[in-house]
Specification:
Blueprint: H1 2-19, H2 46-61, H3 64-70, E1 78-81, E2 85-86, H4 93-110, E3 114-115, H5 118-128, H6 138-148, E4 152-165, E5 168-181, E6 187-200
Parallel strand pairs: 1-3, 1-4, 2-4
Antiparallel strand pairs: 4-5, 5-6
Helix pairs in contact: 2-4, 5-6
């Protein structure tokens, strides 16, 4: 009888372990290197953000503005990043923070410019009344730029065209980036990169 009860306990324990949720680690250097590759929804994920930022940054680094006014300039120009506007119908708060951090990291790692830290910029922006995701305002930009000592703002917006056909939903995202000279308000660079996501039910 005791042996039978013990067997039942072992079977029950095995069943509960088999049904328990399992956490997995993915990415390079793990047993699941391709875990991040599949899209899980139509929302922007890290792969989409990396792609959109890379396309814009590559275009910036090969632009006439960058090669003519930034590369080799002494002293190095000071860049700040104005909040990127979310003009989609999606809630992208976390994605927008990742997007801004990716742009900031790319500029810092270029070695060609000085970049105002987001934390310092955010504190001053709040004092002036600039909200996260605010549309670029030349008057407030000039005020903030003067306090930051910056000569240029990187700004832009992300848009999404949402389409549905029968059981398929597709969103075409576009990340539009501009570099504006704070003193003059002139657009020194602009570029747009696109990425599509689809979900079939």
């Amino acid at each position: 009888m005791k042996i039978f009860q013990a067997l039942l306990c072992i079977i029950a324990l095995g069943t509960s372990l088999a049904c328990a949720p399992r956490a997995m680690r993915g990415g390079a250097g793990t047993a699941n290197p391709g875990m991040d590759a599949p899209a899980m929804s139509t929302t922007l994920d890290r792969a989409d953000i990396d792609y959109l930022v890379a396309q814009n940054i590559e275009a910036l680094y090969s632009s006439r503005f960058w090669l003519g006014e930034v590369t080799g300039a002494a002293p190095q120009p000071i860049f700040a990043i104005w909040p990127i506007e979310n003009a989609t119908s999606e809630h992208l708060e976390d994605q927008m923070l990742t997007l801004l951090s990716s742009i900031e990291t790319s500029l810092v790692n270029s070695g060609q410019v000085q970049v105002v830290a987001k934390s310092r910029q955010a504190a001053l922006a709040r004092e002036i009344g600039i909200q996260q995701g605010a549309i670029y305002n030349p008057a407030k930009a000039a005020q903030l730029g003067a306090q930051l000592g910056a000569g240029y703002f990187v700004t832009g917006k992300i848009t999404g065209i949402d389409e549905r056909l029968q059981k398929t939903r597709r969103i075409q995202y576009s990340l539009f980036i501009q570099v504006l000279e704070i003193e003059t308000g002139l657009v020194k660079f602009q570029h747009e990169a696109t990425r599509s996501k689809a979900l079939k039910r």
